[in-house]
Amino acid sequence: xxxxxxxxxxxxxxxxxxxxxxxxxxxxxxxxxxxxxxxxxxxxxxxxxxxxxxxxxxxxxxxxxxxxxxxxxxxxxxxxxxxxxxxxxxxxxxxxx
Length: 97
Hints:
It is a single chain. This protein is an alpha/beta fold. The protein has one helix at 34-48, and strands at residues 23-28, 51-56, 64-68, 78-83, 86-91.
C-alpha cells in the first residue's frame, strides 16, 4: 500500500468505464505538481507498463489531469473523477494535488 493514499470521505458511482491506454499522458499546468506527477508516473510504469508521458500544460487534455478548482473544500482536499475520457484530480490548492 502506498503512503500517498488518503482515505475516501465520500464516493459516488457514475456510469461508464475508463480503460488505461498503452501510452498514458499525465497533464498538469503547475510546477508545484512536479513531485506528485513524477511519483504517479513511476507507479503507473511499475504496475501498468507501457509509456507514461508528462505534459506541462493548462489545457485539460490527457488521460490523467491534475487541475485546481476553488469549489473543492479544504486546503489538502481533492476530488477524484474517473470517467471514460480520463481521470481528473482536482484540488483547491497545491497541497491537495
